[in-house]
Design a protein that fits this description.
With 286 residues, this protein is an alpha/beta fold. It contains 9 helices and 11 strands. It folds into 2 domains: 85 residues, 3-Layer(aba) Sandwich (Rossmann fold); 124 residues, Rossmann fold, CATH 3.40.50.720. Helices cover 42% and strands 15% of the residues. The radius of gyration is 19 Å and the shape is globular. The N and C termini lie far apart (50 Å). Bound molecules: guanine. Guanine binds next to strand 4 and helix 6.
Length: 286
């Protein structure tokens, strides 16, 4: 069984990013910059945002977090995004999701300039992704493709099952897997007999958002299992959507939680930010 060690793959990729950051700094006179907007004080979101900030700092990327109150109006949030859109020293913008229910994710995804969309989640970039020519891709699916590449797991011709159909993970994941020539089935909470799909798959990406949802009897021997889940427990331990310990002698390769998909997601965010910064710098010079 191969442990797909996202923590070390992400660390190596962050090191590889440093010379690009240095080169950008010497050409442009400042570091690439990511602005992160956090609305409200959801504890999990606060941890994710802190981890993103730390990763930026360790890679030489400049970042600033805007903590906005949970009861902020849509107009005020839109104004903040407009300010960041117009600021020439901001290369990437990310609004941490979920946002409080009175705010519109659609409005946010339309408002962020596609050229500054570090998350790759704006509607414009989603359209480019569908067309197969995205500049930046959503961070979690991209991180998953990169960890597969690192371990030389070629999905071409594989039967792939994605469990979950979110805008952030499930939907874009199916596109990236099919672009890599896998045959993809998207399953979700209304799928009847989920096991009949996962049990026949060569690779399963589990993004169901349900703690320890799938285990030993759900997967084919020798399959690749990617666990996108991230659930805290009372004791402070994290677990995923998969009962990891049941799969050690079933899966050919599996991502742990923590230390699998999470660090790869953050790494993709840094890579997207640097890429957007480089593209904007080229455009200044034109
Ligand atoms: N919340 C959970 N994952 C993500 C992500 O990739 N981007 C943003 N903006 N919010 C998230």
């Amino acid at each position: 069984m191969i442990l797909l060690d996202g923590k070390s793959v992400a660390a190596a990729r962050r090191e590889a990013l440093k010379p690009r950051v240095e080169s950008f700094k010497s050409k442009v006179g400042r570091a690439p910059h990511l602005s992160v907007v956090l609305v409200g004080d959801d504890p999990a979101s606060r941890v994710y945002v802190r981890n993103k900030e730390k990763a930026c700092h360790n890679t030489g990327i400049d970042s600033k977090v805007y903590n906005l109150p949970a009861d902020i109006s849509q107009e005020a949030l839109d104004q903040q995004i407009e300010i960041l859109n117009a600021d020439t020293t901001v290369d990437g913008i990310l609004v941490q999701l979920p946002v409080p229910k009175h705010l519109s994710v659609e409005s946010i995804m339309k408002k962020i300039k596609p050229e500054k969309d570090a998350d790759g989640l704006t509607y414009m970039n989603s359209g480019f992704l569908l067309a197969g020519n995205a500049i930046v891709k959503p961070c979690t699916p991209l991180g998953i493709m990169r960890i597969l590449e690192h371990y030389k797991i070629n999905v071409e011709g594989m039967k792939a099952v994605v469990v979950g159909r979110s805008q952030i993970v499930g939907k874009p994941m199916t596109l990236l897997l099919s672009d890599a020539n896998a045959t993809v089935t998207m399953c979700h909470s209304k799928t009847k007999d989920l096991k009949s799909y996962t049990l026949n798959a060569d690779i399963v990406v589990v993004a169901a958002g349900k703690r320890r949802f799938l285990g030993r009897g759900d997967f084919k021997a020798g399959s690749v299992v990617i666990d996108v889940g991230m659930h805290g427990s009372g004791a402070g331990e994290l677990c995923g959507d998969v009962r990891f310990e049941e799969l050690l002698d079933v899966a050919a390769a599996i991502t742990p939680v923590p230390g699998g998909v999470g660090p790869m997601t953050i790494c993709s965010l840094l890579e997207n930010t640097v890429q957007l910064a480089e593209l904007r710098a080229i455009n200044y010079q034109k």
